[in-house]
Design brief:
It is a multi-pass membrane protein. The chain has about 160 residues and is of the alpha+beta class. About 45% of the residues lie in helices and about 20% in strands. The protein folds into 2 domains: about 1-80, no CATH class; about 95-150, Beta Barrel (OB fold (Dihydrolipoamide Acetyltransferase, E2P)). It has 5 helices and 5 strands, in the order αααααβββββ. A 5-stranded mixed beta barrel has the order 1-2-3-5-4. Helix 2 (about 10-25) packs antiparallel against helix 3 (about 30-45). The chain starts with a helix and ends in a 6-residue tail after the last strand.
C-alpha cells in the first residue's frame, strides 16, 4: 500500500516539489525552482485524479519543468536580480543639486568656504563675497565640491 503511493502518488510529487524549491536557497541557479514547480503541478494533478499513470506523470513533469525553465527563467532572473536601465541615473555624482539653496557656514576666504546642504557640511567655492549665515545657491558641483553664488542661478 505504501509503495505505490511513494512511486506514483501525489505525496511523492508534492514532497519532491518542496525539496526542489528549498534546494534553490542552498544552491541558487534558478534551475531547481522550475523542476520544483513541475513536481508540484504533477502532484496537484495526481491529487485531484486527473493523472494516474506513472508514465504520464513523468512525461508531464519533464514537459512542465523544461517548459517553465526555458519560458520563465529570464523573466524570473530579471525580476529577482533587477535590471539597470540607465547607469547615469544611478551615479551619485549626477544628483541634481543645481539651484538648491544652501546656508553659508564659514566666511569665504580666497573664494573657498563651507556650506550646509540637506543637513551635511560641503566644501564650496564662490567668486562672490559670502559671510557665515548668508544664503547661497548651488551653480554646479564636482564630486563633493560645490560651486555656489549669492544669487539663484536663474536670476
Amino acid at each position: 500500500m505504501l509503495e505505490p503511493l511513494l512511486i506514483n502518488g501525489y505525496a511523492f510529487w508534492l514532497l519532491l516539489g518542496l525539496v526542489l524549491l528549498v534546494s534553490e536557497f542552498f544552491a541558487p541557479g534558478m534551475v531547481a525552482v522550475f523542476f520544483g514547480i513541475g513536481a508540484l503541478i504533477v502532484g496537484v494533478l495526481t491529487l485531484v485524479g486527473l493523472v494516474d499513470s506513472l508514465a504520464v506523470q513523468l512525461l508531464l513533469f519533464a514537459l512542465i519543468s523544461v517548459g517553465t525553465l526555458f519560458g520563465l527563467r529570464q523573466h524570473f532572473r530579471r525580476w529577482l536580480q533587477g535590471e539597470e536601465t540607465n547607469a547615469q541615473n544611478t551615479n551619485p555624482d549626477n544628483i541634481e543639486l543645481t539651484g538648491k539653496r544652501v546656508k553659508v557656514l564659514t566666511d569665504f576666504e580666497q573664494g573657498t568656504g563651507h556650506v550646509q546642504l540637506n543637513g551635511a557640511k560641503w566644501d564650496a567655492e564662490s567668486s562672490d563675497v559670502l559671510k557665515a549665515g548668508d544664503s547661497a545657491w548651488v551653480l554646479s558641483h564636482s564630486g563633493i565640491l560645490l560651486q555656489v553664488a549669492a544669487t539663484p542661478p536663474d536670476a
